[in-house]
Amino acid sequence: MFSECFSDLQNMFIKILILIVSGMFCLNILFLFSGNGYFLLHINTKMNIKRYFTAISLFLFVLNIKQMFGQHQLFPLFLQPPEPQFQSLPQKQPNGHSPNEKLKMCCATLNEADADCKNRFCDFSALSSNNVLFFLSTCNGRGPTVGQMWDCASTRADHSGCCSALGVQSGCMTYCETTNGVPTDYFRYLFCLHDFNKIRDCFMYHLIDQPNLKGEL
Question: Between the CA atoms of 72, 66, 51 and 12, what dihedral angle is there, to the nearest 10 degrees?
């Protein structure tokens, strides 16, 4: 009961924070078109977009501190990650390594990706709703790291059918159809946080019986 209440409270705080950031963005738009040249925060550079992005990531990181120092795993937010939701999908016969092992095997081949990011984030737990922004804000500026690790997780496959079955909202389906690689619209991540566990589960579901991006089982 306590775990469920805490999870609901945590989700409420995240939604409130998203509303605040969205409001700040809208106010900047109003000031931009008012012609007076004054802004609450500049929005016309990638650096300032990253500031919004990093602020939310830091919020999630602070919530994560207790778990980081209390257990060996980095990613669960006070609680263990929720069980994958693909049990409602047609059952698959496992083929080869587990989905998480296939992900790690793929990441091990990424010679151009940042080693620290691979060690810390090459795990499906990093794609949870609670942690994806922390991963992106930490590794986004480290060469091709984010794109390559995202490709390993998604296998650059079309997961639209799985995402639809799990109830991913239509505006977030761009993260399910991954044949074109990692999305670059950072603000959309904010509005799709609620669906990232489902999207992550679809990536895992695909790898149950399919090889990873490098063809490894």
Answer: 120
Residue by residue, DSSP assigns 145-190 as HHHHHHHHHHTT-B-HHHHHHHT--GGGGGGTB-TT-----HHHHH
CA dist 144 → 19, 112, 137, 140 (Å):
30, 7, 13, 8
| pLDDT tens column, 146-174 | 999 999 999 999 999 999 999 999 988 98
The answer for residues whose C-beta is within 8 angstroms of residue 94's C-beta and 6 or more apart is: 208, 209
Q: Retrieve residue 179's tokens.
A: 């044949």
* 166 closest CA partner among 187, 196, 188: 196
Q: Length of the chain in residues, anyone?
A: 217
pLDDT tens digits, one per residue of 96-105: 999 999 999 9
CA distances from 141 to 108, 123, 144, 146, 203 (A): 20, 19, 8, 8, 24
Flag residues of the chain having pLDDT under 70. 1-87, 184-187
Whole-angstrom CA distances from 132 to 61, 62, 106, 140, 151 are 11, 14, 19, 11, 14
Q: List, as one string, the DSSP characters of 63-81.
A: HHHHHHHHSS-SS-SSSPP
Q: How far is CA 1 from CA 10, 70, 130, in A?
A: 14, 21, 20
